[in-house]
């Protein structure tokens, strides 16, 4: 494996965990807001 490939795989490896965690938070927040909006009174 070349140095460039090694650097790319290290960057991908270190970037994967924060991306997974942050996307999980965003997904849970989106589902929570959607569920809360279902119970909201729609009349003004």
Automatic annotation (TrEMBL):
Keyword line: Membrane, Transmembrane, Transmembrane helix
Spans traversing the lipid bilayer: 12-36
InterPro entries per record: CHP02808 (IPR014175)
Pfam families: DUF2374
Protein name (record): TIGR02808 family protein
